[in-house]
Amino acid sequence: MRLLDVSAVLDRERHIQRAGPKTKVLEQLDDETAKYAILSHRWGTEVDYDEITELMQMDEQDRDEVRQRNGYRKIIKSCEQAKEDGYRWLWIDTCCIDKRSSAELSEAINSMYRWYRNAQMCYVRFGRSNGWPEWFSRGWTLQELIAPVELEFFNESWVSIGTKQGLISTLGDITGIPQDVLRDVKTLRSKDSPERPSVAQIMSWAADRKTTRVEDRAYSLMGLFDVNMPMLYGEGSKAFQRLQLEIIRLLPGLS
């Protein structure tokens, strides 16, 4: 996986007028050995892979436009939080995946659950909301809640609201996910255990969640079922049919 070098990002921002055009802020590392934090959030005006890597090669006007986006400030604040917590590396989906490459995007989506599970810490940053944050209604954030062992919630101003373990009863009430699953993700992966939720139960957690792309309703569930499939954006609802077939093939005893 490609990870942000937290110190490099912050140093570049701190010395933006003097930073060199080839300042490197991303490194390719192994998620099984790297110690990293990861961000879960709702997208807005974001900064992509090209923009984060080529920021210092832009003219000043374009660079300032990128730096004024909410997505850029989100990257900086995430890096500041990671540094404060002692993490050198950070993963954010908006800028750590080169989405021009269909192969890289497919690999990232198939690895997403594992990346969140292997993170030492997951930061959930809520956006502005008049009720329950929209984060709870999105398809991709389901696995981003379940997979991490350590997870901390922040409001829009990056003030800590609490942790997954500290809010476990409330999270269960909001999402309908059993507390034992939220407490220990191994419950979800114990295929021979009678305590493992059924396919129907897992599907019910996602029933009212929304995704921007139709296909992502299926792709966002692959990690929860330990399923891998190629990404075929444009296939529409057929993606869900493929997911169901893979579940039947890999988990024939579950219903």
Task: Supply database-style keywords.
globular, seven-stranded mixed beta sheet, alpha/beta, single chain
Short summary of the structure?
The chain is built from 13 helices and 7 strands. By secondary structure, the chain is α/β, with parallel strands linked by helices.
How many strands, what sense, and barrel or not for the largest sheet? 7 strands, mixed
How far apart lie the N and C ends? 34 Å
Please tally the β strands and state the result: 7
**What general outline do the C-alpha atoms trace?**
globular
The Cα radius of gyration reads: 19 Å
Would you kindly provide a written description of the structure presented here, covering whatever features stand out?
The chain is of the alpha/beta class and 255 residues long. A seven-stranded mixed beta sheet has the order 2-1-4-3-5-6-7, sandwiched between helices. Strand 6 and strand 7 form a beta hairpin. Helix 1 packs across helix 4. The relative contact order is 0.11.
How are the SSEs ordered, and which strands pair?
Elements: E1 2-5, H1 6-14, E2 26-28, E3 36-41, H2 49-53, H3 60-67, H4 70-84, E4 89-91, H5 93-96, H6 102-118, E5 121-125, H7 140-146, E6 151-154, E7 160-163, H8 168-175, H9 179-183, H10 186-189, H11 199-206, H12 216-219, H13 238-250
Parallel strand pairs: 3-4, 3-5, 5-6
Antiparallel strand pairs: 1-2, 1-4, 6-7
Helix pairs in contact: 1-4
